[in-house]
Amino acid sequence: MDYLLENGLLAQVYLPFLLLAGWSHVQPVHGGLRAEGLSEGTTEVISHSHGLVARLEGLLMLGYNSDISLRVETVDADEVKVIQAHTLVLSLQSRVFDEMLRKRNGSTLVLREMAERTAVFDKFIRYLYCGELSLQLDQATPLHNLATKYGISSLQQGLTQYMSHNLASVSLSAGHVVGWYHYATTVGDMVLRDNCLQFLSWNLSSVLQSAEWPSASVELLMTLLQRSDLVLKSELELFEALEIWLTQNNPESLTAENALRLVRYAMIPPHELFHLQRNSAIMKYYHESVRDLLYMSYQFHSASPLQLAKFFDVNCSLFVPRNYLSPMWGSQWIISNPARDDRSTSFQTQLGPSGFDSSKRVTWNALFSPRWLPLSLRPLYTEQGAMQPPRPDGGSGVGRPHIIITPATSSVDFAGVSFQKTVLISTKQQGKLVVRHVFSFHQSTEEVCDFLVDGDLQHRTSEHLVDGSLFLHIIVKPIYQTLIATKQ
After folding, report:
1. How far is CA 164 from the centre of its chain?
2. pTM of this prediction?
């Protein structure tokens, strides 16, 4: 997929260069007239910047009045690229180039680059002249690396944005996000790193099935295993993926033990835990390292959680669910034409993750409104039925998307249990559904204040919709208050 990055270049920056290069008379190639006002003394702007950029590109392509040769040598290869350039342009755009040019001894500047960077070096230099470049997905990393190395912050930021917007642009079975995460960590691009980590966390099931999963570093593996916001089918799926990673990477024993201890075995039903102990080679080999966690998990499923807390110190993440897509934890909800009117749905979840509560169900009612008004913004009615203006303490009075999830009935069985609600919003990229937004709130009556606050629900082509429909997945995570003291 080709992509165009643009950076507006001011013509006056290059005017001295054009005069030195012999362009004493510049004809407008493309231009326009822009009025700044309509009153007397109106100021107008004549813009021929497109023509100026075209001439700059011509100078690069033809090497006209070039005063420096860039000799780009490929490390560990015989490939060499020679580019005729201009010191003024390079110095204006890059302090790194400016320093290198000041220290040079002749008219040739030798640069040594890896093969993937050499392949796109001409694109990189063209950006310095024209402020734009076209690229494909596999060129993003070497171009970003060049921008970082030579201090071209505008290009670096543009590529970070491009990569962040294309985390799902190719088949997830091939994968590239793990590689981009490792690259961003290496060069210190924390924006790209965090965006990759968020995508991996919210779409982990797809990543676990991809060819790049075994290439995840130990640091990335541990970071993911510690998170409670992972979106995946079940904890068993995570263990099986970890088993694949351990088998293919064969890390040192301490690394394997630490990773296995981050699995939340209490979230795996007892019959599946028995199966793992009997059939998993990894589990058999490291059984002593996780024996205490398995014991606590079996106890968790066989006794009342409130009773268990009297005998075990279980204030840990072992008993906190992640965002599981299994029906026992929530339900998918597809809303067609979401901007039309209010909608509602009902679904059931298990009361708690403990096997002790496996037969207990909670019925939930979900209400979605595309134009919800807070109480302070709703019109008031007098005793005679006359409508009064909204209260003055409100805002604009414009409704916004809103969702409320409440239990159908209150019950004494809820004692000691709090519920965290999570709403996933999926969109389609390259024919695949990916989670793009996650909203979480903890109490039944709490509003999700930022829910789709910038969402466009009016147009079928909106990035928040899939073929005109809003794809939601509601997850209810029961957390035993007496067991978990800290907010996860």
Report:
1. 6
2. 0.82
